[in-house]
Design brief:
Aspartate Aminotransferase, domain 1; three-stranded antiparallel sheet; 2 domains; globular
Length: 419
């Protein structure tokens, strides 16, 4: 009997599993490992959302199958959110679909629109599912180097020119996971113009849109013509600290939404109805809780950037998301991100996510998640200082490391993508 299943052969060993295994072994030995690796929100779900879940779950008539596409009230709530947040009017019946989190929504979109022989343009580095969702659907991936949004746009023309057959879709993700970079509406206008010219669908991941520290990130659906070619995937996981609840959305082009809904109708019956009712209460209710969580992440970001830099590891300050994208300290750059991450955990008891897990172009970075309180973050910085000192890599006393300035392609390079 053959055990080398075709789709499994296309999936490489999960890089993060090696980090998780090392972390489990150390903790089993009694080590206090400070975990900045997985982006698992540690903040509590706001009480009014939990109360609505409990209240609804007590009703005897909500424990049967739910609606795969999402209950009407939740789809209307998401449409109302888009209207007040982005000024975008959506038809909740044809342009919104509730998903079991953004990850499931993205994977099912890949199943709906891609097949063997299709080519998909994906930024690298990027969230693993952006590639592997399509790989599991049988499509081919063309990784497009994307150390910055401008670099991604400027590299797209070459990717299209050398893709046979022409690409079916392209992926966007801003605020970006893992790089934490943001874009403005001009970026989306160029991306839409490029995609329309080459007849390419756009799948935009907007999971971190409410965790920002400067200007609120825009939606691609704000761009004229975007709804002809684009769909946007988002989630309740980060905004409302509801990661384990598994509820998210896809919104945008009605043909893509219809394809997603049809695939989902064969695969699931939708999220538990009380979860959907509670998610409706979250979107329609007071948003002070979102503001409060955003400020907590801001304080953690500032604590991490300051304390790590003082310890000797220069970490650029992210403008959004719950992550920092940190270059490996120069004395360890030749190790690569996986070996550096394992060594950091063994010697400093600090867990981080190796950048290579997000694509080969991420191998000189690691991702730091803002999922520990400020006290624990500063403890991590003290551990790292000792680690650097033990390896002869700490700055002189009273000095701090200098964060490198990110390279920025010119606007001319950006504009070339639409040509």
């Amino acid at each position: 009997m053959r055990l080398d299943f075709h789709k499994i052969r296309r999936l490489p060993p999960y890089v993060f599993e090696q980090v998780n295994r090392q972390k489990a072994l150390l903790r089993a030995e009694g080590a206090d490992v400070i975990d900045l690796g997985m982006g698992n929100p540690d903040l509590p779900t706001p009480p009014h959302i939990v109360e609505k879940l409990c209240e609804t779950a007590r009703s005897p008539d909500v424990h049967g199958y739910s609606a795969s596409r999402g209950i009407p009230g939740l789809r209307r709530a998401l449409a109302a959110y888009y209207q007040r947040r982005f000024g975008v009017g959506l038809n909740p019946d044809t342009e919104v679909c509730v998903t079991l989190g953004s990850k499931e929504g993205f994977a099912n979109l890949a199943q709906a629109i891609a097949a063997p022989g299709d080519t998909i343009l994906v930024p690298n580095p990027s969230y693993p599912l952006h590639s592997f969702g399509f790989i599991m659907a049988g499509a081919a991936i063309r990784s497009v180097q994307a150390h910055s949004p401008e670099e991604y746009l400027s590299n797209l023309s070459r990717a299209v020119k050398h893709s046979v057959p022409p690409p079916t879709a392209m992926v966007l993700c801003y605020p970006a996971n893992p790089t934490a970079q943001v874009v403005d509406l001009d970026f989306y206008k160029e991306a839409v113009a490029f995609a329309r010219k080459h007849e390419i669908w756009i799948l935009s991941d907007l999971a971190y849109t409410e965790i920002y520290f400067e200007e609120p990130p825009p939606s691609i659906l704000q761009v004229d013509g975007a709804r002809d070619i684009a769909v946007e995937v988002t989630t309740m996981s980060k905004t409302y600290a509801m990661a384990g609840w598994r509820v998210g959305f896809a919104a945008g082009n009605d043909k893509l939404i219809a394809a997603l809904a049809r695939v989902k109708s064969y695969l699931d019956y939708g999220a538990f109805t009380p979860v959907q009712v509670a998610a409706t209460a979250a979107l329609n209710g007071p948003q002070d809780c979102v503001d409060e969580m955003r400020e907590i992440y801001r304080s953690r970001r500032d604590a991490l950037v300051d304390s790590f830099t003082r310890a000797g590891w220069a970490v650029p300050s992210p403008k959004a998301s719950m992550f920092a994208w940190a270059p490996i300290p120069a004395p360890f750059a030749d190790l690569g991100s996986l070996e550096f991450s394992l060594r950091l955990m063994r010697e400093a008891h600090v867990a981080v996510a190796p950048g290579v897990g997000f694509g080969e172009h991420g191998d000189q970075h690691v991702r730091l998640a803002l999922v520990e309180n400020e006290q624990r973050i500063r403890q991590a910085a003290r551990n790292i200082r000792k680690f650097l000192e033990a390896n002869g890599a700490a700055p002189a006393k009273g000095e701090a490391a200098k964060a490198p300035e990110p390279a920025r392609p010119t606007r001319r390079a950006t504009r070339s993508a639409a040509q």
